Amino acid sequence: MKAVLLKSFGPPENLYIGDWETPQAKANEVLVKVKATALNRADTLQRRGAYPPPPGDSPILGLEIAGEIVGLGASVKDWKTGDRVCGLLGGGGYAQYAVMPADMLLPIPANLSFEEAAAIPEVFLTTYQAMVWIAQLKKGERILIHAGASGVGTAAIQVAKAIGATVYVTASKSKHATCLALGATKAIDYKTEDFEEQILRFTDKKGVDVIIDFIAAPYLQKNINSLALDGRMVLLALMGGMKVPELNVANLLVKRLQITGSTLRSRPLSYKVRLSQALKAYAWPLFEQEVFRPIIDSVFDWEEVVQAHTKMEQNLNIGKIILKVD
Questions:
Q1: CA 177 vs CA 16, 17, 61, 86, 293: distances in Å
Q2: CA distances to 10, 125, 127, 141, 283 from 264, in Å
Q3: Model confidence over 179-192: pLDDT tens digits?
């Protein structure tokens, strides 16, 4: 088969389409003809050599796919060839074929295309895990979502709105309209505004109950100061850095705060299966009713993978960047 490969770790220009052995489905797996895959920050990190795949997973980039089943393992009973499916991978999405555990498969809602379906798994699974399982966001609470126009951010706004929370986001000014249209109450320009000051102003100095953060070190103190009593923060990435030169942790104690770090790719298969099934039960009816929708910034032919990675690294996208696989 053809797949997107790496000449060596480094810039987007090191990506190319070459030959790779077609994977074979084990007893409890299916072989999927990939129609579309989506970019994630993890892909850019792996491309640079900073985020290796978990042991046993494909070294090919790509954490989510949408396509058609073309082969069934001997133990697979609940799926058939021709079924339209999407789902999360440990790796291997940038290819013509990929194997997936049958229990991880999600049916593509009839009203969605392959490209739209490819924009769902990683961001909505990450959102559901962080917001529902970990932070336990409730109706009537307030939430701050950093990087509100990102793939996870656009999913998180929709889920938080469906739960009944008041949603605040940070994003560059040009992306505010999208965030507000999805359900955010207020959008803060992180380039020109102090989000801590704005949050305390919006909430009469009470703060927010939940924060979803990807930036880490440079935001940590302001996040702590922006949380309300019994507030919860979920840290999902380290885009701004790992080390904080100085930190006042008094509010952690005074406000009884919880800060939880979370990843998804390295979780055990059993956990990811449970998460996938929980998301399906919760979100699939909402996708079918078009309450939820995947937000797609752009669709590239996979031969334009260099341009797609470059766009992501320039932070130009609103929502997901999709690769259409031939």
A1: 35, 36, 32, 29, 16
A2: 24, 8, 11, 25, 18
A3: 999 999 999 999 99
Position 255, amino acid: K
List CB contacts of 70: < 8 A, sequence separation 6 or more: 31, 32, 33, 81, 97
Q: By C-alpha distance, which of 129, 145, 66 is closest to 322?
A: 66
- DSSP letter for 297, please: E
Task: Report which residue type is found at 287.
Answer: F
How many DSSP H helices and E strands does the chain contain? 10, 15
Q: What angle do CA 293, 296, 300 make, to 5 degrees?
A: 145
pTM of the entire structure? 0.95
CB of 79 closer than 8 Å to CB of 72: yes
Which among 110, 14, 101 is positioned nearest to 65, based on CA atoms? 101
Element (H, E) at 213: strand 208-213
For residue 3, how many other CB atoms are within 10 A of its CB? 27
CA distance 58 to 297: 27
SS3 34: strand
DSSP helix/strand/coil, 33: strand
Determine which helix (DSSP H) or strand (DSSP E) holds 155, and give its type and residue range.
helix 151-163
CB neighbourhood size of 237 (10 A): 20
Residue type, 52: P
* Mean pLDDT, the chain, whole residue set: 97
How many CB atoms within 10 Å of residue 291? 12
pLDDT at 78: 93
- Structure confidence by residue, pLDDT tens digits, 46-56: 999 999 999 99
pLDDT tens profile 275-321: 999 999 999 999 999 999 999 999 999 999 999 999 999 999 999 99
